[in-house]
Design goal:
With about 160 residues, the chain is α+β, with helices and mostly antiparallel strands. The chain has helices at about 5-10, 15-20, 30-45, 50-70, 75-85, 115-125, 125-135, and strands at about 90-95, 100-105, 140-145, 155-160. Helix 1 packs across helix 2 (about 15-20) and helix 4 packs parallel to helix 7.
């Protein structure tokens, strides 16, 4: 099977294959997002537990890595380290404290805009597990709004579990 036929078969139609060939990912996270979206498009809701499981593992690995580099595991310390990884043109820090980390973003780094909330929740397992691991299981994630569901921005809050 040649590349074009593979893309057509995998993505389900020639126009989708053409669209994928034209939009090149700008970084590894966008490439991962393209793969996630293609997998979700092909297999639907059945893919969500697999996506969540794999990204949970990735989040745990990243959380363990950053935990070794930080002086302590307070939420504010972890949040400040995490904040260095995103583009301030698209993500605004609303607040950082030892009890809460609140951010809003206008662009999904995985490119999940207008897909589904459930896909966003599965993908956000990476960040949820990152914080959970780096803070020794003390944080929880709330997705208040998401561009994946068509909202104008993502509104996420990490807080210390009560």
């Amino acid at each position: 099977m040649d590349k074009e036929n593979f893309l057509e078969a995998f993505y389900g139609c020639e126009s989708m294959a053409q669209e994928r060939k034209e939009k090149l990912p700008a970084n590894p996270i966008e490439a991962q997002g393209l793969l996630i979206k293609a997998f979700y498009k092909k297999f639907g809701k059945e893919a969500l537990p697999i996506i969540k499981e794999i990204l949970t593992l990735q989040g745990r690995a990243l959380g363990l890595r950053i935990k070794k580099k930080l002086a302590d595991n307070r939420l504010s310390t972890v949040a400040n380290a995490f904040s260095k990884s995103f583009d301030p043109a698209f993500v605004q820090i609303i607040s950082i404290s030892d009890e809460k980390f609140h951010i809003q973003g206008t662009k999904c780094p995985f490119g999940l805009e207008n897909t589904s909330r459930e896909l966003c929740e599965a993908v956000m397992a990476i960040d949820s597990e990152y914080f959970l691991t780096a803070t020794d299981g003390k944080t929880r994630l709330e997705i208040l709004r998401t561009v994946a569901e068509g909202d104008s921005l993502c509104d996420t809050r990490y807080s210390i579990k009560e």
